[in-house]
C-alpha cells in the first residue's frame, strides 16, 4: 500500500423491523451480508465494532481502509444490497486520508497503526475541526502547541492513535481514532488533553463513537437475537 490511504468510518443503523422476520429469513440475510463482507476484504481492510446500545443512531461500526476511494464506494454499495444490509442505513459516514503529519518527524508505534497488528478491544472515533485562528498562527507557534499535546499522548502507550485528513473531502477537517484495551486510561488521556493549550483551537470534536471490537459474525448474531 501507498502512504496515502483512504479511511472510512461507517456507522450503520439496523431497522428494528428486521428482527420480526423469521429465523430462517434472518439467517439467510446474515449469510448474504457475511459473503459480501468476505468479498470486500479482497479490496480493502475492514474491521467490525459493535455499537449496540452504545449509540442511539447506530448498531454496527465498520472501520475501513483502502488505496482507492472507488473501493470504499463499491464495497459499501455491495454491503447495503446484501441480506441484512438491505435493512441498514448509514447513520454516520466519514472519509479521510492518512498522510504524514507536519508536526511529527518520525511516527511512533502509537501513531498511524490502527490497521496493523492485533486489534484492541475498543475503538473510539470522532470528527475533529480546528479554528481559523489556529491556521493563521505561525508554524513555529503551532509546533510548540502540538509538542505539548503529543507529550501527553506519549505518556499513555496503551492508547494508539490514527489521524486521517478530511479537509477538502468531507465536512470535518480530520477523523481522529483511538484504539485501546483500557477505556479508563483513555479517559484519563482525554482529561489531560482538555487542559493543554491545543484545546483552545478546537471547534468540533463530536459525535464520539465508541465501539467494541468483535468478529462481524458475532455482531450480526447479537443483532439477530435468539431464533424464534
Helix and strand arrangement:
Blueprint: E1 5-14, H1 23-40, E2 45-55, E3 58-66, H2 69-80, E4 88-98, E5 122-130, H3 132-136, H4 139-154, E6 159-165, E7 174-180, H5 183-193, E8 202-204, E9 209-213, H6 216-224
Antiparallel strand pairs: 1-3, 1-4, 2-3, 2-9, 5-7, 5-8, 5-9, 6-7
Notes on the structure:
This protein is an alpha+beta fold and 228 residues long. It folds into two domains: 5-97, Alpha-Beta Plaits; 100-211, Alpha-Beta Plaits. Helix content is 31%, strand content 32%. The protein has six helices and nine strands. The protein has helices at 23-40, 69-80, 132-136, 139-154, 183-193, 216-224, and strands at residues 5-14, 45-55, 58-66, 88-98, 122-130, 159-165, 174-180, 202-204, 209-213. Strands 1, 2, 3, 4, 5, 6, 7, 8 and 9 form a nine-stranded antiparallel sheet that branches. The chain is elongated and about 60 Å long.
The total strand number stands at 9
Distance linking N and C termini = 45 Å
Q: How much strand?
A: 25-35%
C-alpha-based Rg, rounded:
19 Å
What can be said about the biggest beta sheet? 9 strands, antiparallel
Q: CATH architecture of the largest domain, please? A: 2-Layer Sandwich
Average pLDDT, all residues: 93
Overall outline = elongated
**Which superfamily, in CATH terms, is the homologous superfamily of the largest domain?**
Apc35880, domain 1
Binned, the helix content reads 25-40%
Order of helices and strands: EHEEHEEHHEEHEEH
Find the CATH topology of the largest domain.
Alpha-Beta Plaits
CATH class group of the largest domain: Alpha Beta
Number of domains: 2
- Count every helix, treating DSSP H or I runs of 4 or more residues as helices: 6
| Protein structure class | alpha+beta
Oligomer: single chain
The low-confidence parts are none
Amino acid at each position: 500500500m501507498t502512504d496515502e490511504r483512504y479511511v472510512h468510518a461507517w456507522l450503520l443503523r439496523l431497522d428494528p423491523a428486521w428482527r420480526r422476520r423469521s429465523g430462517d429469513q434472518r439467517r439467510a440475510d446474515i449469510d448474504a451480508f457475511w459473503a459480501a463482507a468476505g468479498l470486500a476484504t479482497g479490496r480493502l481492510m475492514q474491521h467490525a465494532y459493535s455499537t449496540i446500545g452504545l449509540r442511539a443512531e447506530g448498531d454496527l461500526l465498520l472501520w475501513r481502509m483502502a488505496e482507492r476511494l472507488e473501493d470504499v464506494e463499491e464495497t459499501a454499495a455491495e454491503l447495503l444490497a446484501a441480506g441484512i444490509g438491505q435493512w441498514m442505513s448509514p447513520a454516520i459516514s466519514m472519509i479521510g486520508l492518512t498522510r504524514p503529519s507536519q508536526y511529527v518527524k518520525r511516527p511512533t508505534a502509537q501513531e498511524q497503526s490502527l490497521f496493523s497488528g492485533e486489534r484492541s478491544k475498543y475503538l473510539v472515533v470522532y470528527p475533529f475541526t480546528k479554528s481559523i485562528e489556529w491556521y493563521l498562527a505561525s508554524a513555529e507557534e503551532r509546533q510548540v502547541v502540538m509538542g505539548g499535546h503529543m507529550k501527553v499522548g506519549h505518556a499513555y502507550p496503551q492508547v494508539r492513535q490514527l489521524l486521517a485528513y478530511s479537509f477538502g473531502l468531507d465536512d470535518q477537517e480530520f477523523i481522529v481514532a483511538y484504539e485501546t484495551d483500557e477505556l479508563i486510561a483513555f479517559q484519563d488521556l482525554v482529561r489531560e488533553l482538555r487542559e493543554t493549550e491545543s484545546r483552545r483551537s478546537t471547534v468540533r470534536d463530536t459525535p464520539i463513537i465508541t465501539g467494541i471490537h468483535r468478529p462481524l459474525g458475532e455482531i450480526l448474531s447479537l443483532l439477530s437475537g435468539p431464533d424464534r
